[in-house]
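Incident log, entry 3
Record: Cell number regulator 8 (241 residues)
Problem: checksum mismatch between cached and fresh output.
Input:
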Amino acid sequence: MAGEDNNREARRGDDREESSPLLQGNDTKIYSKEDAKKAPIVPPPAAEEHGWTADGLPVTDGSVIGEPIGRNQWNSGLFSCFGRNDEFCSSDLEVCLLGSVAPCVLYGTNAERLGSAPGTFSNHCLTYSGLYFIGNSLFGWNCLAPWFSYSSRSAIRRKFNLEGSFEAMNRSCGCCGSCIEDEMQREHMETTCDFVTHVLCHTCALCQEGRELRRKVLHPGFNAQSTVVVLPPSEQTMGRK
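Fresh output:
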């Protein structure tokens, strides 16, 4: 009799455990392979597409929305021949003098600051000088050198994310934005405007680029590493007793 009573109590305990609400909440269904095949496949969410600049930078502001990055302004205008009245005033006067008298030297220094590679100054300065003399000898004005030098303006604009002539004109009048569909077309239009600026206002363009680079990039000659000078110990003499 005692054994039967113990079995009955054990069965009642099992019934209480099965009827527990905690166990009822953890019920899971076991699916077979056929059910898994019939289940609908949910595709992953598509990634958002963002525009890209010509030099490989995404047109995003670090957000998920993908807002375009605002362009920076040039430190001085195209026709600001004497620059600005700041700590670079003397440098701006030097740039204006070089652009008027020796544009080949100014272009060479701009390329040297932009590239910072050995031989950059001589390669660009000599090539510019040859095109300068050929253009003045055959056509009477410097018409060949801008074909060679306008690429530096595009490189400066991309390096410092500066506002181009096309974007500035579109911002002022709003008449050119409808013909641009993506970032690559905008970059092509900006490159064309850089070329036109060098052809029509060549000296002013070189001076503006020189003022911009001297405010943002140190000359490679000033990037000298600090040296440690070790002095020999002074001679020591032993005193005589």
